[in-house]
Amino acid sequence: MKVALLTPGPVSDAGWSAMAYDGLQAIKTDLGAEVSNQEALDAKIPDAMRSYAQDGFKLIIGHGFEYNEPAVEIAADYPETFFVSSSGSETAPNVGVIRFYLEQGFYVAGAAAALSSKTGKLAMIGGPDVPSIRSTFKAFKAGAEAARPGVEVIEVFTGDGQDVAKAKQAALTAIGQGADFLIHQANAAAQGVFDAAKEKGVSAFGANLNQNDNASGSVVGSAIIEAKPAFLSLAKRVQEGSYKGEVSLFGMKDGAIKMVWNEALADRITPDAKAKAEALIAEIEAGTLEVPKDEF
């Protein structure tokens, strides 16, 4: 069993790519699989996929929306290899999608931010402008507006998930417009968001991985993905020969999405906001609240 992971950034980013790498290591440890990973974007994606398939890798995971379309294009040439992307909607007999319902965590964060904000203004800082990130931002905004009608939510995309300076400048601009709570989908560039929050004395939310211990001391909580259960389930099914191309959704009720609070900064989230957030989590887990998400 050989499993490869393609990521849009370094697995040391303490966020999106690192979370997937944790899942890959679980496959190695629990299944005894041979694993490999590399960064691949744009034109490098199909080349990396072909190379791994030719080397006998049974499962190739592309960690992001951008890997879905190349997988479909290449999969027909390698029917014995399974290609699975984290986001997307296109499938084939040997192409599937794992979709993490991160919108649920962002919705809760939006409500907590809106109710704790002193200015009534929040900001979302994104790197690449892709459908999966837009969907989480829409959920954050929806949660904020449901909790506090009239709240203003600023949205900015830098176009780059690695450029820390661009993310910091985008965050500083939003803070200058009054935002006192920030959330990101900026991969490694998230550090720029956290640095801006520290510099201006405002609060930020982490995303994808638990970023509460970031050295900036500005992260009040993190909307996280637990990739290990989903990655292990996928790899076991591929190993057993039972996996078929499909879209699999993993959310709070599956233990795949969580909101983790930073107790060291508990005073930045008001008691009412914390109580509302916990109530929303209970509703989501019970299935009585359906958080909006785009289909793509």
Could you characterize what this model shows?
The protein has helices at 16-31, 44-54, 68-75, 103-116, 131-147, 164-176, 190-200, 227-240, 271-286, and strands at 2-7, 34-39, 59-62, 82-86, 95-100, 121-126, 152-157, 181-185, 203-208, 219-225, 247-250, 257-261. It is of the alpha/beta class and 296 residues long. It has 2 domains: 2-100 and 226-254, Response regulator (Rossmann fold), CATH 3.40.50.2300; 103-225 and 262-286, Rossmann fold (3-Layer(aba) Sandwich), CATH 3.40.50.2300. Strands 2-1-3-4-5-11 form a 6-stranded parallel β-sheet, with helices on both faces. Strand 6, helix 5 and strand 7 (152-157) form a beta-alpha-beta unit. The longest helix has 17 residues, at 131-147. It starts with a strand and ends in a 10-residue tail after the last helix.
Task: Write the topology of this structure.
Blueprint: E1 2-7, H1 16-31, E2 34-39, H2 44-54, E3 59-62, H3 68-75, E4 82-86, E5 95-100, H4 103-116, E6 121-126, H5 131-147, E7 152-157, H6 164-176, E8 181-185, H7 190-200, E9 203-208, E10 219-225, H8 227-240, E11 247-250, E12 257-261, H9 271-286
Parallel strand pairs: 1-2, 1-3, 3-4, 4-5, 5-11, 6-7, 6-8, 8-9, 9-10
Antiparallel strand pairs: 10-12
